[in-house]
Amino acid sequence: MPGFELFDEAERKEVAEVMETGVLMRYGFGAARAGRWKEREMEEAIRRRAGVGHALLVADGTAALTTALAALGVGSGDEVVMPAFTFVASFESIFAAGATPILADVDDTLCLSPEAVRKAVTRRTKVVMPVHMCGAAADMDALQALCREYGLFLVEDACQAFGASYKGKFLGGIGEAGCYSFDFNKVVTCGEGGAVVTNDAKLYERADMYHDHGHDHKNDDRGLEDHPFPGYNYRISELHAAIGCAQIRKMDTFIGILRRNKKAFKDALSEIREVTFRRLPDPEGDSATFLTFFLPTEELARDAAATLKAKGVEGVFHWYDNNWHYVRNWTHFKERRFASPLSSDILKGMPDYAAADFSASDHWLSRCISISMKLGWKEEELPAKAEKAARSIKSIL
Ligand SMILES: *Cc1c(COP(=O)(O)O)cnc(C)c1O
Known about the structure:
Elements: H1 9-21, H2 38-50, E1 54-58, H3 61-71, E2 79-83, H4 89-97, E3 100-104, H5 114-120, E4 125-128, H6 140-150, E5 153-157, E6 165-166, E7 169-170, E8 177-181, E9 194-198, H7 201-210, H8 238-249, H9 251-269, E10 276-277, E11 290-294, H10 298-310, E12 316-317, H11 331-334, H12 344-348, H13 359-365, E13 368-372, H14 382-396
Helix pairs in contact: 1-8, 2-8, 3-4, 3-7, 9-14, 10-14
The chain binds pyridoxal-5'-phosphate (PLP).
């Protein structure tokens, strides 16, 4: 899946251009930088791809989520509804903003269930934060309608879905704000990197200030700039942005390869009666980073995952047993073990997640397997790879 699989001369050339001047910072150093602004270049590319008014590059996807929440004014006493199946960055960014994460179940899309969100909304809810897991969209029509009904902000965590779309709209560009990650394992990578996109000029301006110590960026001399509010340092470096500039030009090629690979695997697995596939609210817009499917029982899924791995199938995930992505194994979070005490405001409204019932999500996650599609696979290798996966699954049924 990751874009680093296809690093070549293009990334090296971009990095070399930055090293020719040695200016690694996005702001200032006017003459020395010889007109090179890799962040601005990548932001413009993101903005055009996402079809939005504004894009802000930041240090990583977690920083993008935190920045979006802070820019929306979300903080102490506010609740953010997020899915029980996601990456730990979801609740980390909500804590960082000073707000309270409220977990809701996922459904057969493996993304937020709109009905579960409805049940989770209270008078303290400010944001619904769907996560477009494994490269494909959540049920955005229903979630957007719900946000309008209750007057909530919709913040899309599109960190795993840069390049995917929903009914013709680039993911991340649908809600009030959208967030991307360009970390080393994402389809388009900067090594580390992230972005916030929005159509709201005011929100962009606040995000831009927040991510750089509150600087208003209205003066060439940083020491003379105003700071309407304190922020943080979530800046990305020119070197990281340079790699992203080369990677984003390859995005269509990447998605094309992933879709070709996924089709081969899906065709092979479709012949197994016991295998059913993840529901995609818009199959056309899938970025095809994973093929995700369900087996009839938890035991069969665990057996299938073990057998696939034993037979040498790469990139096999049984998320239910994974420590990073599903609430079942987030013991630090559930037992409230934090590096330093969180504010009582955050914890006051937080349900007791050690005791909470996520059986509706368990129903899907316990039986779910994803196989990661690699960019480096050659077309001629695909039939054998897909056949091996299908044979491995058949062998345990
Ligand atoms: C990768 C990821 C993030 C965080 O991105 P980083 O750049 O690694 O900080 C957030 N949410 C999801 C769903 C992710 O997959």
